[in-house]
Design goal:
Layout lengths: L3 H14 L4 E17 L2 E21 L2 E10 L3 H17 L22 H4 L3 H17 L3 E17 L4 E16 L7 E8 L7 H14 L9 E7 L1 H13 L4 H5 L20 E3 L21 E5 L2 E2 L6 H7 L21 E3 L6 H6 L3 E15 L4 E14 L2 E5 L3 E6 H6 L1 E12 L5 E17 L3
Parallel strand pairs: 7-12, 11-17
Antiparallel strand pairs: 1-2, 1-4, 2-3, 4-5, 5-6, 7-17, 8-9, 8-11, 9-10, 12-13, 13-14, 13-15, 15-17, 16-17
Length: 452
């Protein structure tokens, strides 16, 4: 982890030494402590600390900006100066881009600091979490697998145009997958994530995962078809993250690869659904500036079912003549702005009440192998995983074997019939997180069955 003045000193030195017309320097630091575990306890652990530099050099030409970036691990003067020279050399070879803008100047961003107790969180406490998980699984004849992790990151961005921003953040997580001894019959998953390790309830994770696995030993088959589903937060996250990757960005809309195309201002979903992109959400705070050093702003994406509009970076805000919402990725890139911190507004129902509103349907813990088929309708396919249960007459019933779905997220959210009141920071079996409650959706399409 890098302190503000230490990181600023490194970045300023490189900006001052640059021969480019414009220069951007990013200094990053990481402290990662994790332990993976299985049936016999920890299988891998590490305490990794590192820092590095990324330099973007820009050369002004009559035909536009030439730019390139280079990076290195470590903060030594010799290696960082080599990185600077490499970025300048590559920029001289790059084709000019007449669309690029000059670097932005000074800005004010919110203060954001990592929780030091989380960054220094001891392995002894992680071992307690792991011991509780392995003991509970052993008592039920289950096989555990999981990860306990605490992470601290810092990022500092300095430009020759006078922009200087710095912040750090902390993350803690614990996840457990409990499986039957044959790894086929009975599996349950649970996790928890927070900005501070003190906010995690590892015992609750163990209880939920073990309960689902034990209840799933005698899973029955059900036919493919349309079901009312109650999606727990991890399942919701696995779907909504595709809207973040391919849908809520201004470039996605301009390239006509977004479900927003022709729909902004329309009530596409029920009034119960509101979604923001908010890096400042207290439950899941992120760095307060984006990849260009611009302040991140809360951006309403769906307001009471109405599509509001895309997020922007500096370039797309200029093109569209609107405010920069602070959703730029580090440049150079070809992806445009992205919504990386989705927040679903809570509703009024508990998970039990969502289930009680189902005559016949399914409770889904997790999706995996989720992939995008058609970006314009956010048509997705994937499979249930680690805890799928039948719901009949408002009561949670037996476990069922996994099903494959093929469903448009636009259609699915249009069939929203309930929003939970308890929210969780939920990930998926790929990169990204969403702060979301459980959702109840009608007529969700499952297209095939499995034998497990």
């Amino acid at each position: 982890m890098l302190q503000r003045e230490e990181a600023l000193e490194v970045a300023r030195r490189l900006v001052d030494a640059s021969t480019a017309d414009e220069t951007e320097v990013v200094v990053h630091g990481t402290r990662d402590r994790f332990a993976r575990f299985a049936a016999d306890g920890p299988t891998q652990s590490a305490d990794r600390e590192g820092a590095g530099v990324s330099v973007r050099a820009r050369l002004r030409t009559p035909d536009g900006w030439r730019e390139a970036s280079a990076s290195c691990d470590g903060l030594g003067e010799a290696q960082t100066l080599r990185t600077l020279r490499r970025a300048c050399e590559l920029a001289a070879l790059a084709p000019p881009d007449p669309e690029q803008l000059p670097l932005g100047g000074p800005v004010e961003v919110r203060a954001q600091a990592a929780d030091l107790a989380t960054v220094e969180h001891a392995f002894a406490e992680k071992a307690r979490w792991i011991a509780a998980a392995t003991a509970a699984c052993r008592a039920e004849g289950l096989v555990p697998a999981g990860l306990a992790q605490t992470l601290g990151t810092s990022r500092t961005l300095v430009t020759s145009a006078g922009r200087e921003v710095h912040a750090s953040r902390s993350r803690a997580s614990f996840q457990l997958t409990a499986s039957g001894p044959d790894f086929v019959h009975g599996a349950g998953f649970a996790d928890t994530r927070a900005a501070r390790a003190s906010e995690l309830d590892a015992d609750d994770v163990v209880r939920r995962a073990v309960h689902k696995a034990a209840a799933g030993r005698e899973a029955r088959s059900v036919a493919a078809g349309e079901y009312t589903v109650v999606l727990e937060p991890n399942a919701v996250s696995a779907l909504l993250l595709f809207a973040a990757y391919q849908g809520f960005g201004a470039q996605d809309v301009a390239e006509e690869s977004s479900f927003l195309c022709g729909r902004v201002g329309q009530r596409l979903f029920p009034e119960a659904l509101s979604i923001d992109d908010d890096a400042h959400a207290p439950e899941n705070p992120a760095l307060p500036f984006d990849g260009e050093g611009s302040p991140r702003r809360r951006a309403p994406l769906v307001e009471r079912g109405v599509l509001v509009g895309p997020v922007t970076d500096a370039l797309w805000a200029h093109k569209l003549g609107c405010a920069n919402t602070g959703h730029g990725l580090p440049r150079p890139n070809t992806s445009g702005p992205k919504a990386e911190h989705l927040v679903v507004h809570p509703g009024a129902e508990s998970l039990a009440q969502l289930v009680a509103g189902v005559e016949r349907g399914l409770l889904v813990t997790q999706f995996h192998y989720t992939n995008l088929i058609d970006p314009k309708e956010l048509l997705l396919t994937g499979m249930t995983r680690n805890g799928t249960f039948l719901i009949e007459n408002g009561e949670l019933g037996p476990a069922v074997k996994n099903l494959r779905f093929t469903e448009s997220l636009v259609r699915a959210l249009g069939n929203l019939s309930g929003v939970g009141r308890e929210r969780a920071v939920a990930g998926a079996l790929f990169d990204g997180e969403v702060l979301t409650p459980a959702l109840r959706l009608e007529n969700f399409r499952f297209t095939s069955t499995t034998d497990f």
